[in-house]
Specification:
2 domains
Length: 379
């Protein structure tokens, strides 16, 4: 009995295998369809999570950079701003010392003008000078004025030297500021922040400063000071600042208040101002000589010449200083006020322009560092 049933195992095994294979083939397409249907539902969730994570990471980095900016950069900018303002004060002090040195030359100049040789020199040149109108008397006195007080070149160099030293001081302060910010970034945990190098950084800063100047409607003197500090024109800018300030200088104010206010004073002053020296700086020197010439002529008619010339030359220098420092006349008397229609002319002097420039620099520092550190402009 048993032997006859044994051969049935093979057919049964084969039939079972065929049935399982058939079932697997039948179920596989359905499983693939289910997987395909499930996949689109899971992808949006994964993409949104990735975006949220990236946004959160970016926000965290920006917050960290803003904290660094507030904690490290803002206090440093305030410190550098203080140093720049101290440099501006030193610049004004240098100019003040320069003009005091000019005052020290007044007495020697007056002594020279009252000497016998100078009187004879003026007297000898007067007839030919009046006949030919060649300005030989003005030139003679102008040489004495320049030897004791200042020439056009001396005035430009003295004031420009003070301004150029201000530029060097500000440049040193800015370099220190950039170096310290870079050092703080090196030791901070702010990956990816890289400041521009010195030259590139301050070229961009110059653009920022120009935007501030345009927005605030600053004067040409203030704009030129900005070019002096951040530009590449150096001595040219310094001389342009001096020239721009002296455009408002009116030596006729001092001349008109000379003792007697004689016609000869006015005529001589006009002649000197129209001589070989041109521009506002030349007018300062030329009118100074004209004042002296007018009073030399008056000397022949009065014994008070020496005292009057000394006083008027000091007034002349005080008005020059006021023009450079405050932009207007400070030391005029009643005659001076009358000559200026009773009021000093408004203007911008260095004591106003230098602090304003420091404020513009401070704001430009803030914006430039914010752009590079918080906004990550340099990345």
């Amino acid at each position: 009995m048993l032997p006859s049933r044994t051969p049935l195992k093979v057919p049964l095994t084969v039939a079972t295998a065929v049935a399982l294979i058939t079932l697997g083939v039948t179920l596989q397409p359905q499983a693939e369809r289910l997987a395909t249907q499930a996949s689109p539902q899971s992808m949006p969730h994964s993409s949104e999570s990735t975006r949220d994570a990236a946004l959160s990471s970016q926000t965290a980095r920006r917050v960290a950079r803003a904290r660094f900016y507030d904690a490290e950069v803002i206090p440093l900018i305030a410190e550098i701003d203080d140093q720049n303002r101290l440099a501006a004060d030193r610049c004004l002090q240098r100019i003040d010392r320069t003009l005091k040195r000019y005052h020290a030359g007044v007495e020697p100049f007056v002594e020279d003008m009252t000497s016998i040789s100078t009187r004879l020199g003026v007297l000898k040149r007067m007839p030919g000078g009046w006949w030919t109108s060649d300005g030989r008397v003005e030139a003679y006195v102008q040489d004495k004025f320049e030897s004791h007080l200042f020439s056009e070149e001396t005035l430009l160099d003295d004031i420009s030297t003070a301004l150029l030293q201000f530029r060097r001081d500000v440049d040193a302060n800015q370099t220190l500021m950039l170096t310290r910010v870079q050092a703080a970034l090196t030791t901070s945990d702010l990956p990816g922040v890289q400041l521009e190098q010195h030259d590139a950084f301050f070229r961009e800063l110059s653009t920022e400063l120009g935007r501030y100047a345009a927005g605030q409607g600053t004067t040409s003197v203030e704009n030129m000071l900005g070019a002096l500090v951040l530009g590449e024109v150096g001595a040219f800018a310094a001389r342009s600042v001096v020239t721009g300030l002296l455009v408002r200088f009116a030596p006729s104010v001092a001349i008109s208040s000379a003792a007697g206010a004689s016609a000869t004073v006015g005529a001589s002053a006009t002649g000197a101002g129209g001589g070989s020296i041109g521009g506002p700086v030349g007018a300062v020197v030329g009118f100074g000589a004209g004042l002296a010439i007018g009073l030399v002529i008056d000397w022949w008619m009065t014994e008070r010449f020496e005292t009057e010339l000394t006083g008027q030359m000091h007034i002349y220098l005080n008005d020059l200083e006021a023009t450079l420092i405050s932009g207007g006349v400070l030391n005029g008397d009643a005659t001076t006020n009358q000559a200026t229609d009773g009021a000093a002319r408004p203007g911008i002097g260095l004591q106003d322009a230098l602090p304003k420039l420091c404020g513009q620099l401070r704001d430009a520092y803030r914006d430039r560092f914010y752009q590079q550190i918080v906004d990550g402009e340099s990345l």
